[in-house]
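Fold this sequence, please.
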Amino acid sequence: MTNVRAPAVAGMFYPGDPEGLGRLVAELTAELPVGPAPFKAIVAPHAGYPYSGPVAGTAYAAVRHLAGRIRRVVLLGPAHRMGFRGIAVPGADALATPLGTVPVDRDAVAGCLELPGVHLLDQAFAGEHALEVHLPFLQHLFPGIGLVPLLVGDTRPEHVDRVLQRLWDGPETLIVVSSDLSHYQDYETARRLDLETSQAIEALQGHRLNGHFACGFLPLSGLLRRAVALDLRATTLDLRNSGDTAGGRDRVVGYGAYGFEYAATARLADPLRARLLETARQALAVAAATGRVAEVDVADYPLALRAVRRTFVTLTRGGQLRGCIGTLTATTPLVLDVVGNVFRAAMQDPRFGPVTAEEAAEIEVSISILSHPRPIAFTGEAHLLEQLRPEVDGVILRDGNRQALFLPKVWHDLPLPAQFLRQLKLKAGLSPDHASPTLQALRFTTETFPAGG
């Protein structure tokens, strides 16, 4: 006989009648404020639907177009009802909601149980809502999936990462992390804390998170470790709190929706690209005319253009380089980082004089959004050259206080890895044949637009 775990919070956190629940979930996932993307993972909140449902709906709407592809969902969330060490999986064969049952992928669960710290612990799921509130969304969008439900107790992010490595697989598997953000702060304090959390997520800096910022910080931090290892880009899709949805503003709970996609193929929607390029051109005109950085109100821009990013701005005139400067640390919203780098490329690139107002009208601007730099492990120059990916990798080379960077588009002019590395050494102030045990190389990818810029 199939072992089915009955719903614990139906009729409380979400409607208990199938018709009303199905209608509500359809409404919550109907509108997508940004274009669809091939997200490998999402983060969504788990409070009652009147409070967090609209934000969770944003996260699920962002993967709605993947309905024909997703065959399995790995669902992780924090345990609220029972304290325990490690990561818990249920003994049930299926989990039920008023919409029916979701089968548990018992083979995947068995694989998880082979890992240290993963336990069969049915008691942890008794009365727990962190995973259950996601099930109606999954049933509506991805009928027939297999589910891997994981409750995260007292453990380390690297243990969560280890489970994710086991379950990651390809595009048929979607990772979902369940977490609310700040709890029971006043409205403005919550907005400040939740923005800080969002920026940590976008920068893939899980070490900045704790229970003060997000109840699901442990599964979330594990996901961020995997995102660093696999070069994913995180984007805030929605950021509100209960004061924005269905409650008062004296004691609110924060909610965020986030999407994770592979950085090598990540792409801003065309309207967002167009707006960012227009802002960059206006910033160039201001810099050339006044010698100052253009003033930009970040609140006027969509969330995707406020995401914390590393960027480079390249200026060309008549096909010739006229300035190129960027940032290597993700601390600033995308639009502000671009505006600042436009100013520095136009006015402070030491290879060129300041751009004049007459020149500005003839200059073309291109923007490169950099992924997270990842170290390349190598035993010598030949080994390093073998690992470089022409046309794909941007490379940072470091030794002591000397450092240089080439964007991937430099491969167009230096197509051979040995030639590429030699010139990068020269740019860093090193000799072309420089070899040292302290030499470091890091790779990154970019989204550059306009194409060929």
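The two ends are 62 Å apart (CA to CA). Residues 270-290 form the longest helix (21 residues).
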